[in-house]
Design brief:
- The chain is α/β, with parallel strands linked by helices.
- It folds into two domains: 10-149, Roll (Elastase, domain 1), CATH 3.10.170; 157-317, Neutral Protease Domain 2 (Neutral Protease, domain 2).
- Helix content is 43%, strand content 9%.
- The protein has a five-stranded mixed beta sheet with strand order 2-1-3-5-4, with helices on one face. Strands 6-7 form a two-stranded antiparallel ribbon.
- The radius of gyration is 19 Å and the shape is globular.
- It starts with 9 loop residues before the first helix and ends in a 5-residue tail after the last helix.
- Bound molecules: asparagine and zinc ion.
- Zinc ion (ZN) is lined by residues 140, 144, 164, 167.
């Protein structure tokens, strides 16, 4: 399906979107069967060479390869989240086809956005299962693409931790929307299902309780921090981008719960407006990002001051805007 990209008639597109919304409000299937816009999945066949061999186009049927089919389905959910909820087509907002490579490397324990495409390892089969398996991991990586084309947050220190956090925020939003869970019903975990069963890990990260996702001899303990008083200064991990992202992650989870309802509605609109509205730039720090979200909340909901108030309270809870 080549949505808007090749200019196919928009009536048909509108009709499909309406159908999808109706389905979501009634039975809320975890994955809409017609998810996605214009995806191309490639197979690296265990090499670390990109993009690899083209194996599944947008309109092709399932291949029977779990990683290929999960990558197709989950990147479709990411595409649809941004298209249907935030009116954004693909990572660049221009509907550019999305390339996704699976079976990258051998026992490869990661997934990433390389600046142009998504890439997924198969995991080592001892600790990590396939990185295509959890929906939210794919949405996290997709959102790195969105951030690159919008706020452009530099992947180092506080701006890097914000880049990481924005990816977790939209990952959580996508998961909650797929499950039909409100902010209060959600588990706020990222990467459930990524770890193999005997690993002492519930997930990769917890947005509501950063630092509590795992504690296993093979992994160590979840190093994420939950507030500014615990901010970690380090040279590793691009200045602790996956550690300090716990701080803005928790701010979003608290804001969403404080605002109430579904995270993909008012809270998601506020965070999306912040990253696309010009108030967040490549060098924005935590305090600047916090102000941008409060400004976005005020701008989007001028008649309901409680939204900006809940956003402010959430940031104060993690040690910002004090
Ligand atoms: N999975 C990691 C991430 O998206 C890969 C990386 O970029 N370090 O944050
Ligand atoms: Zn990331």
């Amino acid at each position: 399906r080549r949505l808007v990209a090749d200019g196919r008639d928009t009536l048909a597109v509108d009709e499909r979107m309406r159908t999808r919304r109706a389905e979501a409000s009634s039975t809320t299937p975890p994955l809409a069967p017609d998810a996605g816009g214009n995806r191309v999945v490639y197979d690296a066949q265990g090499a670390e060479v990109l993009p690899g061999t083209r194996v599944r186009d947008e309109d092709d049927p399932p291949t029977g390869d779990a990683a290929v089919d999960e990558a197709h389905d989950h990147s479709g959910v990411a595409w649809d989240l941004f298209a249907d909820v935030f009116d954004r087509r693909s990572v660049d907002g221009e509907g550019t086809p999305l390339s996704v490579t699976v079976h990258y490397g051998r026992d490869y324990d990661n997934a990433f956005w390389d600046g142009t495409q998504l890439v997924f390892g198969d995991g080592d089969g001892q600790v990590f299962d396939r990185f295509t398996k959890p929906l939210d991991v794919t949405v996290h990586e997709f959102t790195h693409g969105v951030t690159q084309f919008t706020a452009g947050l530099t992947y180092q220190g506080q701006s890097g931790a914000l880049n990481e956090s924005v990816s977790d925020v939209f990952a959580a939003i996508a998961k909650q929307r797929a499950l039909g869970q409100s902010a209060d019903e959600a588990d706020w975990l990222i990467g459930v299902g990524l770890f193999l069963p005997d690993v002492k890990a519930t997930a990769l990260r917890s947005m509501i309780a950063p630092g509590t996702a795992y504690d296993d001899p093979r992994l160590g303990r979840d190093p994420q921090v939950a507030s500014m008083d615990a901010y970690v200064e380090t040279e590793e991990d691009s200045g602790g981008v996956h550690i300090n992202s716990g701080i803005p992650n928790r701010a979003f989870a608290l804001a969403a719960k404080g605002i109430g309802g579904n995270s993909w509605e008012r809270p998601g609109q506020v965070w999306y407006a912040a990253i696309t509205g010009g108030g967040v730039t490549p060098s924005t720090d935590f305090a600047g990002f916090a102000r941008a979200t409060v400004d976005a909340a005020t701008g989007l909901f001028p008649d309901d001051a409680s939204v900006a108030q809940q956003v402010t309270l959430a940031w104060q809870e993690v040690g910002l805007l004090l």
